[in-house]
C-alpha cells in the first residue's frame, strides 16, 4: 500500500514550513541534562506520551501532517534536538510490530519529510527490524520499500554535531556496523555509507530468498544479525483464502519492487559515490587500525630484536587468508630478524637495517592482504554472481532480468578505478587535452607530440658520463612510462611508440661521435635494447599486479572468460599496444638505419627470423631451434635494421612472441649468389659442446655476445672452479661483448661479474690470509675488462654501482696491506710513476689536490712555459671555439683572455694537478683515469676567482689532439657555474628551440623545433664549426648551476611567459585557429601543456626532489602572493601578450600552465600512486610538499592572505591543480588533511565547481567520508 496521496494544500504547506522554521530554535532549547536517559525505565513514559499524542490526533481525525505538528511541539517542549533520535526509536519501535497500522506509517512519512526524524536513523531501524521478517510481514516490507525509495538518499547535514554523533551511534548499534565491518570509530559519513551498502545487500538477499535461493549465513560476508521476533507480534496466516492470496500477490510484487528500488538507488549519483567509497576505503578502514601499533613500533623498536610483548594478528596468518597464498609467517617475540631468516621464514628481510627490514616486511604483508581489498565488497558481488549463475534456471529471475542487468551494471561501475564524476566544463576541457594521437601516425618523427619530451630528456640525461646512478634507469623509466601514459591520457600503443622513438633518437645522436672519455654507442644501445624492454616488463608487472589487487576473485568469477590473456585484461591491452607500436615503427625509416658497428647484429637478427620462417614452412626442425651460426657481412642474405634488434629484445623478454616474424615485409631477402659461402658454426655452440677455452676460442667469445643465460652460468662456474688460466679467460669473456652488447641478458652478465668480485670462500679453504689471493688473475681480468667508460656507464644505468662498491670493499681490505709492501718508499717515486704503477692511487692524489685547491690559501702561479706548461699556443682559439658553441645554443658571453687583461695563471695545486694529468699515458684502456681527473679539475675550477677551464682545456688539447672537440665542449659548460645571466639565456633558448619562436621577440615563425630542436639530431652539428643544441648543453651543465633556486624561478617565469605568448597566438606551434584568426583555447592549452611539461622536466633534471619541493612550498606561493612583475619586453610595449592588453584567455592559461608544471614535476619525482617505486622513498618529501601547498591554497581561498595575481589566474590555477590531482594523482589527495580538503572544496563550490569539489572529497580517503556526505547533502 503505497504512501501516496493528493498534493499538500497551501494551508498544509504553511504548516510544514512553520514546523521547519521551528527547528531553528533547537539549539536554544537544548540544555545539558535534557538528553534522554538510556535506561529502559525512563523510556516508557516518553514513549507513552508520544503515542498518546498520536492517538489523540488520530481520534480527532487529523491528517498525519497535523500529527507531526503536534508531536513536533511536544519534542521541542522537552528540549530535544531535531531530528530526534528518541522519536525515531519510539515510532519505529511501535511500527515493529505492536502498532503496525497504516496511519502510523503515514505519520512516519510526514515525520521524515518534515525533519522530525532522521531518514537515515529511521530507515536503519526499519532495515534491522522489518527486513528479517519481510516474508511474514509483507505489508510492512512494502511500506519500508516505499520509504527507502523516497528517503534513502535524503540525508542532510542539519543538526548539531552532537545530534549527528547520536544518530550515527544508534544506526551503528542497530545494524551492528562496528562488529560486522571491523571499524571501531564510526562517524556520520561512514555510517551513512555502510547503511546504504547494507540496505542494498539486504534487498538482494530478500529477493533471492523470495525466489528460493537463500544464502547460508556463513556466505553472507558482512551480514547483520537477524533479530529474534516476539511471537506475540506475529501476523498469523488464517484460512481466509482472499487474505492469503492477497499477501502472496504482495510478496511477489515486493520481490520486483525490491530490485526496482535497489536499481534506482544504485543509479543515483549519490549512491554511486557512496558505494565507490565502500569499495575504495573499506580495506583502509579495516587495516588502518591494525597497522598503527606496527608503524609506531618502527620508532621504538631496538635495532636487534622485535621488542614488543604482543604482536598484532596481522602477522600471524599462516597461509590461509581467505584462500589466498600468504608469503609470510609469524615473527616470534624476542627473536632477531636474522634468526627468523635463518629459520626458513619467507619474510621480506632484504632491507639493510632492522627498522627498514621491519618496514619492508609490514608493507609487503599489507600488500598481500590488500589483494582482498574489495573483500568487504564481495558480499555484494557474491549475490550478483549467484544471480548470474541461477538466472537461466529461475523463472522469477528471468522475469526481472532487465532490472538485474541494470543493477549489476550500476554496481560494476562503482568498482572502476577510473571512476569519475561528470567532467567539468571549461577547466575540465583544458585538463582533458590529450596528446593529439591523430598526428602520431601521419607525421614523421620530428612532428610527434611534444608532450612526450620527458622520455628524450631522461634518456639523454642518462648519457652524462660524469654522473653515476645509484637507482636503476629501469625503475625510473618504468615510472616515467606510467606517468606520461596517465598524464597524456594516451593508450598503450601511443605511449610505447613514443618511448621507442625517443630511444631510437638517442642512438641516432651518436652517428657522429665525439672522441673522448664519455659514454658512446654501447651505452646508448643499452638504453634502447636492454633498459627500455626491461622498463616495459616492469610496467606490465605493476599494471597486472594492480589489477589483481583491485579486482576481487568474485569480480573475476563474474566474468566467465576472465583470463590474464583475455581481451579485457590489462596484460592483454599492454601487449597489444606494444605489438602495435612496434609494427608502426616501420614508418620511421630514418631512425631504423643501424649504425655501422651494429649492422652485423641487425642482419643476424633478420637472418634469425628468416631461418625461423624457413624451418616452420619446411617442418625440418623445431620452430624454436634457431642456428646461432655467424655469417660474414658478405654472406648475409637478409637486410636488418634497428627494428629487428628491438623485436629480438622484446622476444627475449617474453613481451611478444615469434609470430611477429610473419609480418609482411619483416624479412627482406637479397638476391642469392650462385654459391654462397658456408655459414660458420657459432663459437658459443662450440663452447657449450665442451671445447676448451683456448686463446682462439676466448678471443672469438669476447667479441660475440652470449646467446642466453645458460652460457653465462657456465662461464661463471669456470671462473670460480676452473684452472687459473680458465678463470682469467672466463672473466675476460664475461666482460667482453656479452657485457657491452648482450642486451637480452645484460643484467644477468653484470650480476655474474659482481658475484665474481665477491667470490665466496671455498669450503676447503684453510690457508692463512684471504681466499681472494687465489683468484687474483680472475679478479684482475674483471677489473681491467670492466673499467672502460661504456662498461662503467652500462653498469651505472642498470643501477648496480652500489653493488659494485659493496663487492670492492672486501678487495680493498684484502689487498690494502699488500699494496704497502709493493709500493715500498712511495716518496721515492714520482706521482706519474705512482699512478702508472698503482692506478687506484689516483683517487688519493686527486683528493689531496682538490682539498688544497678548495682551501684557497695557495697563490696563483703563471702558466708561462718555464716553471709550468703554457697554454698560449691555442688558448685564444680554444676560447673562441667555446664562445661559438655557446652562441650556437643561444648563449652570449664575453671572452676572458682575448683582450689580454686576464692573467694566464692557476692556483699552485691546480697547476700541479694539470701538469700531472697531461703526462698520463694515452692508452685507450686507461681512459677512465682521464675521466676521473677531468671531472675533479672541473669541480675544482668553481673555487677559483677567475675562469680556469680555458687554460686547462688548452693544455689538454695540446696533449690529446683527438679529444679536441670533447675538451672544447666540456669547457663550454664553464659560464653556467657562476653566471646567472648565462643560465637565464640557456633556459630561454631551451624553450625557444622547443616551442618555436623566441619568447617576447614578436616573431611569428611557422615551424616548431620540438625534440630535435631542443636536443638536436646529433651530439654536434654538421660542419667545421662545433655546435651544441641548447637542451644538450643544459643537460650537461645543470648539475654545475650554482643557485638552483634561481633556476626554479626562471623556469616558472618562462612557462608563464609561454602561456601568455600562446594565448595570443604569437607562438608558432599552435596551428588550430578560429574563423577570426585567433588561436582556439583548446589548441593553446595543448601547447601550454607542452611548455609546462618541458619546464617540469628541466626542473627535475636540475634538482630532483629538492627543487620540486621548492616549487611547491616557495616559488609558486611567492608568485601568487606578489604582484606580477612585467617582463622587459612587456614594459617596453614590445611583447604581444602585454600585461595591460592580455585578455581572460591569457589569465586562464597562466594558471593552467602553473598547475600543470606543479603536478607534472611532482609526478616525475614522486610517482602517481602507491604502486610507484619512488612512493615510499619520497614519502616525507611528498607529504610535506603537498600538505604545505594545499594548506596555502586553502588559506588563500579563505581570504587569509592578500594575493597579487589576477583572480582569474588564481581560479584557473586552483581549479586545474585540483582537477589534475583528482584525475591523475588521486593518491596525493588522500595525503591532504581532511579539513584542508573541506576548505578547498568550499572554495570550488564558490566558483560553481561543485562536481570537482565532490570528486576532490571523494578521493580524500576514509577520514574525508563525512565531508563527502556533507557536500552531497
UniProtKB/TrEMBL annotation:
Positions of region (Disordered): 22-48
Segments forming a coiled coil: none
GO BP terms in the entry: regulation of phenylpropanoid metabolic process
Cellular-component GO terms for this entry: mediator complex
Protein's UniProt name: Mediator of RNA polymerase II transcription subunit 33A
Amino acid at each position: 500500500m503505497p504512501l501516496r496521496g493528493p498534493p499538500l494544500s497551501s494551508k498544509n504547506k504553511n504548516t510544514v514550513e512553520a514546523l521547519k522554521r521551528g527547528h531553528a530554535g533547537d539549539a536554544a532549547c537544548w540544555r545539558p541534562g535534557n538528553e534522554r536517559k538510556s535506561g529502559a525505565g525512563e523510556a516508557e513514559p516518553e514513549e507513552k506520551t508520544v503515542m498518546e499524542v498520536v492517538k489523540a490526533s488520530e481520534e480527532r481525525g487529523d491528517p498525519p501532517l497535523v500529527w507531526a505538528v503536534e508531536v513536533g511541539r511536544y519534542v521541542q517542549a522537552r528540549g530535544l534536538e531535531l531530528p530526534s533520535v528518541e522519536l525515531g526509536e519510539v515510532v519505529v519501535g511501535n511500527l515493529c510490530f505492536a502498532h503496525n497500522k497504516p496511519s502510523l506509517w503515514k505519520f512516519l512519512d510526514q515525520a521524515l519529510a518534515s525533519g522530525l526524524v532522521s531518514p537515515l536513523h529511521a530507515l536503519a531501524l526499519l532495515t534491522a527490524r522489518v527486513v528479517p521478517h519481510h516474508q511474514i510481514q509483507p505489508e510492512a516490507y512494502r511500506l519500508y520499500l516505499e520509504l527507502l525509495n523516497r528517503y534513502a538518499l535524503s540525508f542532510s547535514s542539519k543538526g548539531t554535531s552532537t545530534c549527528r554523533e547520536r544518530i550515527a551511534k544508534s544506526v551503528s548499534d542497530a545494524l551492528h556496523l562496528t562488529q560486522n565491518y571491523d571499524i571501531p570509530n564510526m562517524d556520520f559519513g561512514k555510517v551513512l555509507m555502510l547503511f546504504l551498502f547494507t540496505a542494498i545487500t539486504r534487498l538482494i538477499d530478500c529477493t533471492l530468498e523470495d525466489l528460493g535461493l537463500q544464502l547460508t549465513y556463513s556466505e553472507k560476508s558482512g551480514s547483520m544479525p537477524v533479530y529474534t521476533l516476539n511471537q506475540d507480534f506475529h501476523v498469523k496466516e488464517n484460512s481466509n483464502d482472499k487474505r492469503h492470496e492477497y499477501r502472496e500477490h504482495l510478496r511477489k510484487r515486493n520481490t520486483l519492487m525490491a530490485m526496482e528500488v535497489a536499481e534506482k538507488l544504485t543509479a543515483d549519483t549519490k549512491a554511486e559515490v557512496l558505494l565507490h567509497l565502500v569499495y575504495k576505503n573499506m580495506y583502509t578502514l579495516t587495516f588502518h587500525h591494525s597497522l598503527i601499533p606496527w608503524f609506531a613500533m618502527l620508532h621504538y623498536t631496538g635495532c636487534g630484536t622485535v621488542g614488543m610483548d604482543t604482536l598484532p594478528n596481522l602477522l600471524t596468518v599462516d597461509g590461509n587468508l581467505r584462500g589466498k597464498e600468504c608469503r609470510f609467517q609469524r615473527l616470534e617475540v624476542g627473536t632477531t630478524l636474522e634468526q627468523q631468516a635463518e629459520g626458513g621464514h619467507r619474510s621480506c628481510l632484504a632491507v639493510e637495517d632492522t627498522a627498514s627490514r621491519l618496514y619492508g616486511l609490514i608493507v609487503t604483508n599489507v600488500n598481500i592482504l590488500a589483494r582482498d581489498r574489495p573483500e568487504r565488497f564481495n558480499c555484494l558481488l557474491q549475490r550478483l554472481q549467484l544471480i548470474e549463475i541461477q538466472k537461466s534456471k529461475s523463472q522469477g529471475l528471468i522475469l526481472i532480468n532487465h532490472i538485474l542487468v541494470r543493477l549489476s551494471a550500476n554496481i560494476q561501475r562503482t568498482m572502476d578505478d577510473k571512476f569519475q564524476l561528470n567532467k567539468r566544463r571549461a577547466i575540465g576541457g583544458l585538463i582533458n587535452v590529450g596528446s593529439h594521437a591523430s598526428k602520431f601516425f601521419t607525421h614523421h618523427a620530428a612532428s610527434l607530440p611534444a608532450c612526450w619530451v620527458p622520455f628524450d630528456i631522461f634518456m639523454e640525461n642518462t648519457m652524462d658520463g660524469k654522473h653515476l646512478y645509484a637507482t636503476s634507469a629501469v625503475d625510473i623509466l618504468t615510472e616515467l612510462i606510467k606517468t606520461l601514459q596517465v598524464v597524456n591520457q594516451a593508450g598503450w600503443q601511443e605511449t610505447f611508440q613514443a618511448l621507442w622513438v625517443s630511444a631510437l633518437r638517442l642512438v641516432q645522436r651518436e652517428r657522429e661521435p665525439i672522441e673522448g672519455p664519455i659514454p658512446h654507442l654501447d651505452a646508448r644501445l643499452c638504453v634502447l635494447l636492454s633498459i627500455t624492454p626491461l622498463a616495459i616488463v616492469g610496467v606490465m608487472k605493476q599494471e597486472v599486479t594492480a589489477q589483481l589487487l583491485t579486482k576481487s576473485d568474485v569480480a573475476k568469477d563474474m566474468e566467465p572468460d576472465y583470463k590474464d590473456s583475455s581481451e579485457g585484461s590489462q596484460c592483454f591491452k599492454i601487449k597489444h599496444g606494444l605489438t602495435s607500436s612496434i609494427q608502426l615503427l616501420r614508418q620511421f625509416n630514418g631512425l631504423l638505419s643501424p649504425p655501422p658497428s651494429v649492422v652485423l647484429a641487425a642482419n643476424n637478427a633478420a637472418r634469425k627470423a628468416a631461418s625461423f620462417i624457413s624451418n616452420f614452412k619446411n617442418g625440418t626442425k623445431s620452430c624454436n631451434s634457431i642456428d646461432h651460426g655467424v655469417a660474414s657481412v658478405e654472406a648475409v642474405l637478409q637486410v636488418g635494421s634497428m627494428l629487428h634488434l628491438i623485436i629480438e629484445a622484446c622476444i627475449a623478454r617474453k613481451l611478444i612472441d615469434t609470430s611477429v616474424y610473419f609480418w609482411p615485409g619483416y624479412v627482406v631477402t637479397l638476391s642469392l649468389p650462385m654459391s654462397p659461402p658456408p655459414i660458420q658454426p657459432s663459437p658459443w655452440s662450440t663452447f657449450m659442446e665442451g671445447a676448451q677455452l683456448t686463446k682462439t676460442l676466448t678471443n672469438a667469445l669476447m667479441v660475440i655476445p652470449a646467446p642466453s643465460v645458460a652460457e653465462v652460468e657456465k662461464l661463471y662456474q669456470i671462473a670460480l672452479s676452473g684452472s687459473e688460466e680458465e678463470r682469467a679467460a672466463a672473466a675476460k669473456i664475461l666482460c667482453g661483448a656479452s657485457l657491452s652488447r648482450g642486451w637480452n641478458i645484460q643484467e644477468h652478465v653484470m650480476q655474474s661479474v659482481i658475484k665474481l668480485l665477491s667470490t665466496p670462500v671455498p669450503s676447503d679453504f684453510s690457508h692463512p690470509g684471504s681466499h681472494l689471493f687465489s683468484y687474483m688473475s680472475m679478479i684482475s681480468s674483471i677489473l681491467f675488462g670492466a673499467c672502460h667508460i661504456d662498461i662503467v656507464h652500462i653498469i651505472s644505468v642498470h643501477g648496480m654501482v652500489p653493488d659494485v662498491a659493496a663487492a670492492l670493499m672486501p678487495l680493498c681490505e684484502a689487498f690494502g696491506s699488500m699494496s704497502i709492501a709493493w709500493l715500498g718508499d712511495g716518496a721515492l717515486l714520482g706521482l706519474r710513476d705512482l699512478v702508472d704503477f698503482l692506478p687506484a692511487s689516483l683517487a688519493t692524489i686527486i683528493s689531496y689536490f682538490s682539498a688544497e685547491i678548495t682551501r684557497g690559501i695557495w697563490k696563483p702561479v703563471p702558466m708561462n712555459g718555464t716553471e709550468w706548461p703554457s697554454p698560449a699556443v691555442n688558448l685564444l682559439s680554444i676560447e673562441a671555439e667555446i664562445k661559438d658553441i655557446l652562441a650556437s645554443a643561444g648563449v652570449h658571453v664575453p671572452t676572458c683572455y682575448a683582450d689580454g687583461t686576464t692573467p694566464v695563471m692557476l692556483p699552485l695545486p691546480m697547476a700541479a694537478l694539470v701538469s700531472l694529468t697531461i703526462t698520463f699515458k694515452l692508452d685507450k684502456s686507461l681512459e677512465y683515469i682521464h675521466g676521473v681527473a677531468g671531472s675533479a679539475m672541473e669541480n675544482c675550477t668553481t673555487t677559483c676567482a677567475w675562469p680556469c677551464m680555458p687554460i686547462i682545456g688548452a693544455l689538454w688539447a695540446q696533449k690529446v689532439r683527438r679529444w679536441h672537440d670533447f675538451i672544447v665542449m666540456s669547457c663550454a659548460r664553464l659560464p653556467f657555474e657562476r653566471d646567472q645571466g648565462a643560465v637565464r639565456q640557456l633556459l630561454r633558448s631551451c624553450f625557444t628551440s622547443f616551442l618555436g619562436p623566441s619568447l617576447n621577440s614578436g616573431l611569428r615563425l611557422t615551424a616548431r623545433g620540438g625534440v630535435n630542436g631542443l636536443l638536436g639530431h646529433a651530439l654536434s652539428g654538421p660542419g667545421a664549426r662545433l655546435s651544441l643544441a641548447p637542451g644538450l648543453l643544459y643537460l650537461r651543465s645543470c648539475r654545475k648551476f650554482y643557485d638552483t633556486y634561481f633556476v626554479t624561478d626562471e623556469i616558472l617565469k618562462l612557462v608563464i611567459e609561454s602561456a601568455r605568448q600562446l594565448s595570443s597566438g604569437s607562438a608558432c606551434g599552435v596551428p588550430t585557429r578560429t574563423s577570426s584568426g585567433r588561436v582556439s583555447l583548446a589548441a593553446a592549452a595543448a601547447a601550454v601543456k607542452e611548455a609546462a611539461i618541458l619546464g617540469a622536466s628541466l626542473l627535475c633534471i636540475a634538482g630532483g626532489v629538492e627543487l620540486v619541493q621548492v616549487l611547491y612550498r616557495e616559488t609558486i606561493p611567492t608568485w601568487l602572493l606578489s604582484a606580477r612583475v612585467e617582463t622587459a619586453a612587456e614594459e617596453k610595449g614590445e611583447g604581444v601578450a602585454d600585461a595591460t592588453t592580455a585578455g581572460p584567455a591569457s589569465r586562464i592559461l597562466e594558471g593552467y600552465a602553473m598547475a600543470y608544471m606543479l603536478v607534472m614535476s611532482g609526478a616525475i619525482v614522486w610517482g602517481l600512486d602507491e604502486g610507484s617505486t619512488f612512493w615510499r622513498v619520497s614519502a616525507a618529501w611528498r607529504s610535506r610538499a603537498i600538505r604545505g601547498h594545499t594548506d596555502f591554497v586553502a588559506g588563500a581561498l579563505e581570504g587569509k592572505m592578500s594575493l597579487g595575481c589576477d583572480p582569474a589566474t588564481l581560479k584557473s590555477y586552483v581549479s586545474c591543480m585540483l582537477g589534475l590531482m583528482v584525475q591523475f594523482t588521486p593518491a596525493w589527495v588522500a595525503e591532504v588533511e581532511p579539513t584542508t580538503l573541506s576548505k578547498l572544496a568550499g572554495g570550488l563550490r564558490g566558483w560553481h565547481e561543485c562536481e570537482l569539489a565532490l570528486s576532490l572529497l571523494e578521493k580524500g580517503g576514509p577520514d574525508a567520508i563525512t565531508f563527502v556526505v556533507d557536500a552531497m547533502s
